[in-house]
């Protein structure tokens, strides 16, 4: 999904890109509203407060650089996405310290109760106060109102992150005492598939309950608000996506999980893994940053909106090739850029 995200952020500026895949303005969802990087990263990341602050600082810097670039170059932007000054790098920056503050809580509460409490609490505020109207229609006459989408949607993204941690904690053993950690590869694979199926079904049912017009709450998903149904949709989408990847790997590369020792499993996993996908996974955020920089450069030098099909495809292929070469080069030289 990180590759699709990198391609989509530029492709959306060309008229050949199907508009149904572009980010929606207020209500509904599309391909570009998924937020996979956030949910996927949360599956395997835990934070301590001091380490989270080190993670926060470079992301804040990236957010400030993007802010300065967009404003200084008068680059086209939709203020209803995150606000006048806010951008997604700021959201990413503030997540680690908030997650770290939750670390002292018991695992059951932190991973299995807290995401729902944050999600439902935020939705309650949207429904029972004027917060929803404030976010959608208030005049932008001060710093908070100018960035209200980014500030308040943060709580939805925090719920997504914590929900992703819950799934990761369930399917990936963390301690040697866990019986699954000492089981065979075949048993671990069965456990992962079974748990992912249960999580996928559970999140889908919760999403249906939130959006159903007859028995449910009729809450339309909104990325702009990051409301309950949007959070549930993102977590469900990413969970079932990981389940499908797991099933494909299980069917096409059964020798990986049938390996009898770690060395053999590592060797077979490396053989079954795409070199390009591995390279993007290793430096995903750095490549995403490069994609943003290239997108801005291309939009400032070319009239992408009025470019014909051949020209658009030529630019997109060159852009995708550049990102791929950069990712593979970093992998080849064993370079990991941690942001």
Describe the structure.
The protein has 339 residues and is mostly helical. Helices cover 69% and strands 0% of the residues. It contains 16 helices and no strands. It has helices spanning 2-11, 36-42, 49-72, 79-82, 88-102, 107-128, 131-137, 143-146, 148-171, 185-211, 228-252, 254-257, 262-272, 275-282, 284-301, 309-332. The longest helix has 27 residues, at 185-211. It is globular, with a radius of gyration of 21 Å.
Q: Give helix and strand order, one letter per element, not per position.
A: HHHHHHHHHHHHHHHH
Q: Report the biggest beta sheet as strand number plus sense, adding barrel if it closes.
A: none
What's the number of helices?
A: 16
Instruction: Measure the end-to-end span.
Output: 19 Å
Q: Helix share of residues?
A: 55-70%
Low-confidence stretches: 176-182
Count of extended strands:
0
Structural class by helix and strand composition: mainly alpha
């Amino acid at each position: 999904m990180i590759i699709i995200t990198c391609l989509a952020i530029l492709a959306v500026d060309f008229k050949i890109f199907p508009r149904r895949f572009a980010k929606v303005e207020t209500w509904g969802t599309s391909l570009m509203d998924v937020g996979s990087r956030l949910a996927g990263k949360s599956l395997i990341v835990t934070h301590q407060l001091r380490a989270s602050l080190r993670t926060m600082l470079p992301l804040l810097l990236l957010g400030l650089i993007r802010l300065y670039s967009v404003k200084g170059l008068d680059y086209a932007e939709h203020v209803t996405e995150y606000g006048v000054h806010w951008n997604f790098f700021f959201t990413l920056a503030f997540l680690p310290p908030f997650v770290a503050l939750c670390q002292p809580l018991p695992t059951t509460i932190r991973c299995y109760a807290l995401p729902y409490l944050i999600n439902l609490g935020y939705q309650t505020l949207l429904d029972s106060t004027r917060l929803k109207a404030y976010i959608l229609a208030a005049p932008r006459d001060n710093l908070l109102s100018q960035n209200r989408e980014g500030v308040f949607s943060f709580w939805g993204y925090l719920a997504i992150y914590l929900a992703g941690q819950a799934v990761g904690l369930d399917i990936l053993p963390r301690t040697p005492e866990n019986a699954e950690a000492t089981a065979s590869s075949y048993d671990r694979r069965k456990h992962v598939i079974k748990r992912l199926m249960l999580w996928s079904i559970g999140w889908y049912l919760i999403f249906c309950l939130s959006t159903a017009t007859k028995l449910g709450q009729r809450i339309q998903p909104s990325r702009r608000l990051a409301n309950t149904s949007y959070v549930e949709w993102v977590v469900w989408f990413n969970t079932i996506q990981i389940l499908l990847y797991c099933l494909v790997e299980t069917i096409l590369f059964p020798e990986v999980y049938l390996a009898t020792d770690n060395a053999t499993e590592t060797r077979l996993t490396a053989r079954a893994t795409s070199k390009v996908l591995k390279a993007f996974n290793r430096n995903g955020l750095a490549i995403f940053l490069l994609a943003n920089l290239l997108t801005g450069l291309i939009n400032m030098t070319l009239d992408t909106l009025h470019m014909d099909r051949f020209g658009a495809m030529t630019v997109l292929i060159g852009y995708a090739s550049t990102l791929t070469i950069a990712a593979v080069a970093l992998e080849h030289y064993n370079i990991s850029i941690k942001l």
